[in-house]
Every structure is written in C-alpha cells, then in structure tokens.
Amino acid sequence: MFSTEPAMDFNVKKLASDAGLFFTRAVQFTEEKLGQAEKTELDSHLENLIARADCTKNWTEKILRQTEVLLQPNPSARIEEFIYDKLEKKLPSKTTNAELLGQYMLEAASEFGPGTPYGSTLITVGEYQKRLGGAEREFLQTSAATFLTPLRNFLEGDWRTISKERRLLENRRLDLDICKARVKKAKQAEAKAAAAPDFQETRPRNYVLSASASALLSEEVDKAEHELRVAQTEFDRQAEVTRLLLEGISSTHLNHLRCLQDFAEAQATYYAQCHHYMQDLQRELNSASEKRKKESVAYPRCCAPLLCLSLSTSTQLQIKQLLLDFSGLFLSSSFHYPTLKKTNATSSHRPCSTLNHFNMTKQMNRHLITSILHTVRKTIIIIHNRAQHVIYKIIQ
What we know:
single chain; about 400 residues; mainly alpha; Substrate Binding Domain Of Dnak, Chain:A, Domain 2; 10 helices
C-alpha cells in the first residue's frame, strides 16, 4: 500500500494558500469599494474595448432571444429545443402548424366528398397549406443554421473565453494592488524605524538589535518590491492577452453582419414563396368558382336529373324528392270542365234551337281551353321558379 500523506499534505497546503489568496483579494476588493485602498485603473483603450464587448454581448443575447421567439412562438417548444441542444441530441422533426392544417383539410374533404364544391375547395386549400408549411420548415432550418447558431456560438464560445480572461485580469489587478500596498507599508515601517528608534545607542545589545531590525525591514521592502515587479509583469501580460481578445470583437461584428444578411435573404425567400403560393391559390379558387357558375347557367332547367349526376348522393336525393313534390303539385291541380246540360228530346225537332246550342257550346269550349292553358302556364312558371331557387341553393 502506498502512503497518501504527501499528497494529502500537498493538497492541504495548496488549499490553505488558495484560501489565503482569496481572503487577501476579498479584503482588497472591499477596501476599494469603501474607498480605503487605491485601485489600479486600466488604460482608456482597454476600457473602451471592454465597454464595447459588454454592449455586443448584451445586444447579441437580446437579438438571439427575440429571434427564437419569432421563429418559435411556443415557449414549451423552445424549452424542449433548449434541452435537446444541451443534451447534444437531435431534435425530432415536427409537423408545422400550416402542414397540420392542410392535413386536416384533406381529411375533411374525404369525409364531405371530393366531388362536392366544398370538398374540392378543401383539397385545393389543404394542398397549398402543406406547401406553406414546407416553406416554413425550410425557412426555420435555414435561419437556425445561418443566424441563430453563429450568435449562440459567440455567446457560448468566444464570450466565455473573454469573460474568463477578464476575470483573470481582475485577479491580477487585485494582486498588483495588494503588492503595492505591501510595499507602501514596508517602506513606511522602515522610515518610521529610521526616524524614531526604540533603543539606546549607548548600549551594545540594543545596537545589535537595531541593526538586525533594520536588516529585516530592508529585507521586507526588497521582498515586497520583488513581488510587486512579478505582479506588475503578470498584470501587463494578462492585460495584453485580454486586449487581443477584445479586439477580436470587430471580426465578430463582421461575422454577425454576414449572418444577418443571410437571415434577411432567407426571410425574403420565405415570404416570396408564400406570396407565390397564395397567388396561385387565389387563381385556382377564382377559376373553380367561374367554372361552377358557367356550369349552373349551362344546364337546362328541365334537365335537373342530369344535373344531379354530378352531385353527391345526399344532394341527388334532395333534388329528386323536390321534383316528386313538384310533380304531385302539378298533377293535383284539377281543372273542372263545365258539363253541358242535356237537351230535351224535343229540341232535336227544332233546327233553330239546335244551331244556337251548337254555337253556344263552341264558344264555351273556346273559353274553357283558354282558361286551361292560362292556368297550366301559370302553374309551370311557379314550379320553374321554385325549382330553380331550391336547386341553386343546394348546389351552392
């Protein structure tokens, strides 16, 4: 068995050193906030780069978040996409709302009958809704690849590196200010010891103590100055690294500019496709409407049974029942012919009376036929108008 005491001792020492360093940095930071300690200021160029980077990060987050809302308004779906992205799993393909609406329209058309005007229109609109859904899916995929992904990569990649280096620069600055404070305190102690010694120079023992204290103070000053030089070197090196990373924000802006142009192009293509599809849909709907109007005018009114052949079964039954009702109405119209009174047997022996009776009968028959024709014509007109109105309502 190998002993773990050296490793444990090393870990404890490192932990104690880190804890002490963290404590001194916390004290320095608190004193700076309270105005009790001096703070090393960064140069103006580096400060401007930091402010520009912070502005870029904030607005990139807002643009990314709002673009995600634009492309996916459903917050639950956005959370699902976020989880799949963090788990590095591929999000399963989903049907868009337009495609789902088109599918519902096609299923409804199969229920209502594809041969009916409503069913055929549902099929036409449903097909174009599915095309709109396909265009929407392509737009979402293109936007995610060309716009959302680069912005997200900047926030999760480049900005994390910049933030890490900035935190390291802040720690180097705190260490530098701590060293400056130590040097200042050591020099003040040395000056105070030289100005007002706490011993009698006539005594040899006190003289030796004075020389030893002066040497210790001088050694303390030299050590503090050495630590200050090391801290200054590390701070300058870290400031240069941070400056180079922050200057890369300009190239980030150029990259985001190209991504924004690609997003605008994808958006323009998507809306152009939608406009083209809707124009085609309007033309097809108008053409179908005009065709139905021409067919309704071209069919003779007396050929209603032939018209029923192009309609659904339920519509044909309604029209046939209507025709039967109209036929019953026409046949039930009774025309009462006036009956002629029989002449007496003696009238045949009267030639003059027989001739007058014959003329009277002929005149009455003429009036009767005229009345019958007028009544028949009036009845046909009524039946024609009612049948035309009802059949037109059924077809529409």
